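A reminder from the course coordinator: this example appears on the midterm review sheet, so study it carefully.

Given structure:
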C-alpha cells in the first residue's frame, strides 16, 4: 500500500487492522479520546475530539503571514517584545496585533495566590526541575512519535542545540520568579510559541520527508499538545514523587496551576486541560502512555541529546552517564527503544544510591551511605545537566519559521 493511500485511510479512520498487518505502530490519532471535559479546568466542553482540533485563530492568520511574505519583518519586530507587560511593537500587521492582544490575556481562572506559591516551589526545586525538564521530558519527547517526526522534519530539526535552547527557554521562563508578572517573560514565550506551532502546521505538510513518514495531514493537534504537556509537568511530578522529594500539597497544586496557564496560553482549549493531578494522571494514562513508541527520527534525536553533554564535560556528562540516567529516569523499555546500552556501573550506582542521595540533599538522611565521591558525582550531574539544557535559554529569541528541515 502506498504511503499516500495509507495516510488517507488514517484520515478517514478505521485503519487500525491494516496498520497492525503492516507492523506499523498505531499512531496517536487512531486512538479514541475518551477523557471527559468534566475533569477539565473549564468543567464542561463541547466534546469535540481534540485529535481533530488545531488552533482556529492562529493557524489561518500565520498561514496568511507566511503567504504574504510578512514573516521576516514580524520576526524582526517581535525580537524587541520580551516582557509580558510590554506593549506590542509598532508596525505589526493589524490582524496579527489584534490576535496577539487577545492571546496575551491571562484567563479569568488565573489564581495569583497559587502563582506566588509556585515561585517558592520553583526556587526551592529549580535544580531538580531543570534536570527533569531538560532530560526526562526532553528524552520522553523522542519516544512520542508524532512529536519526534514533527521536530525532526521542521526547521529546528536541522540544529538541535539551538532548538533545545529555545524549548528550554519555556522551562526557564515558567520557573522564573516573575513568570506571569508584567516584567516576566512566560506570556511572551507562550504567545510566540503559539505562532510557531501555527507556522509548523502550515509548513510541515509540505515537507516531502514528513509526508513520507507521518500518518497525519496536519501536525500539532490539541490532543498532541496535551500529550506533550504530560511529558512536562506530569512526568516531572511523577519523578519527584518517585525520588521521594517532600512537596507540600499547596506547592504541588501551585506547580500544576502554572502549567495549566501555560497550556491555555499556548492555545490549548480549557476543556482539555486537567483540573487536578488526579485528572492529569488519568488523562496521561489514556493519551501519553499508549502512544509512546520508537521511531527512526526519535532514535536520532535521542542520540543527539545524549551527545550534547560531552561538549560541556566529557567526564561527568559522557554519553554513558547520560544514557544510564535516561534508563534510570524513563525505564528499561524506553532505554531499549532508544538503543541505549546497559552501563552496569552507572546503572547500579543510580539504582542503589540516587534515593539516598536525594534523601541526604533533602535533609531526610544525615549520612550518605555510599562513598562521598558518589554524592559529589550525583550533585555535579544535577548541576551540569541543568547547565547544558538551560544555559542559553535566557537570551534566545523564538521566531516564526519559514522553512522545514532541508535534509
Ligand atoms: C516549537 C514548546 C507541543 C512541535 C516549540 C517551541 C517551544 C515549544 C517553546 C519554540 C522553540 C522553537 O522554535 O524551536 C511546546 C510545548 C508544547 C508543545 C510546551 C506542549 C505543551 C508540541 C507538539 C508538537 C510540537 C505536540 C508536535 C507534535 C514543535 C515544532 C516546533 C515547535 C515542530 C518548531 C521547531 C522549529 O522548526 O523551529 N514548541 N511545544 N510541539 N514545536 Fe512545540
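Designed residues:
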Amino acid at each position: 500500500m502506498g504511503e499516500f493511500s495509507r495516510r488517507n485511510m488514517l484520515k478517514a479512520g478505521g485503519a487500525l487492522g491494516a496498520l497492525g498487518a503492516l507492523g506499523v505502530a498505531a499512531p496517536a490519532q487512531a486512538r479514541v479520546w475518551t477523557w471527559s471535559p468534566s475533569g477539565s479546568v473549564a468543567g464542561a466542553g463541547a466534546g469535540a475530539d481534540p485529535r481533530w482540533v488545531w488552533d482556529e485563530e492562529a493557524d489561518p492568520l500565520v498561514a496568511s503571514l507566511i503567504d504574504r511574505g510578512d514573516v521576516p519583518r514580524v520576526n524582526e519586530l517581535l525580537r524587541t517584545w520580551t516582557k509580558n507587560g510590554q506593549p506590542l511593537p509598532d508596525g505589526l500587521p493589524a490582524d496579527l496585533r489584534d490576535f496577539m492582544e487577545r492571546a496575551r490575556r491571562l484567563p479569568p481562572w488565573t489564581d495569583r495566590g497559587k502563582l506566588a506559591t509556585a515561585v517558592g516551589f520553583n526556587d526551592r526545586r529549580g535544580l531538580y526541575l531543570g534536570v527533569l525538564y531538560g532530560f526526562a521530558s526532553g528524552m520522553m519527547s523522542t519516544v512520542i512519535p508524532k512529536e519526534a517526526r514533527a521536530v525532526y522534519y521542521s526547521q529546528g530539526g536541522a540544529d538541535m542545540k539551538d532548538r533545545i535552547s529555545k524549548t528550554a527557554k519555556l522551562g526557564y521562563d515558567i520557573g522564573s520568579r516573575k513568570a506571569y508578572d508584567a516584567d516576566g517573560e512566560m506570556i511572551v514565550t507562550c504567545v510566540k510559541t503559539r505562532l510557531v506551532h501555527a507556522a509548523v502546521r502550515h509548513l510541515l505538510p509540505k515537507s516531502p520527508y514528513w509526508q513520507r513518514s507521518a500518518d497525519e495531514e496536519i501536525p500539532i493537534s490539541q490532543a498532541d499538545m496535551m500529550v506533550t504537556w504530560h511529558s512536562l509537568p506530569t512526568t516531572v511530578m511523577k519523578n519527584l514523587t518517585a525520588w521521594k522529594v517532600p512537596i507540600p500539597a499547596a506547592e504541588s497544586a501551585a506547580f500544576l496551576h502554572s502549567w495549566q496557564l501555560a497550556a491555555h496560553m499556548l492555545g490549548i482549549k480549557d476543556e482539555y486541560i486537567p483540573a487536578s493531578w488526579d485528572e492529569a494522571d488519568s488523562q496521561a494514562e489514556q493519551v501519553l502512555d499508549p502512544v509512546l513508541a520508537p521511531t527512526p527520527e526519535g532514535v536520532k534525536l535521542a542520540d543527539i541529546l545524549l551527545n550534547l553533554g560531552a561538549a560541556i564535560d566529557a567526564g561527568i556528562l559522557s554519553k554513558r552517564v547520560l544514557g544510564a540516567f535516561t534508563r534510570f529516569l524513563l525505564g528499561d523499555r524506553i532505554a531499549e527503544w532508544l538503543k541505549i546500552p546497559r552501563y552496569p556501573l552507572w546503572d547500579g550506582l543510580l539504582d542503589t544510591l540516587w534515593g539516598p542521595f536525594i534523601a541526604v540533599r533533602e535533609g531526610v538522611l544525615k549520612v550518605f551511605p555510599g562513598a562521598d565521591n558518589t554524592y559529589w558525582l550525583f550533585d555535579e550531574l544535577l548541576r551540569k545537566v541543568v547547565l547544558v539544557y538551560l544555559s542559553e535559554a535566557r537570551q534566545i529569541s523564538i521566531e516564526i519559521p519559514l522553512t522545514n528541515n532541508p535534509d
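Residues 1-11+53-397 form one domain. The pocket of protoporphyrin IX containing FE is lined by residues 146-147, 150-151, 154-156, 163, 166-167, 170, 193, 196-197, 200, 219-220, 224-225, 228-229, 266, 398, 401 (CB under 6 Å).
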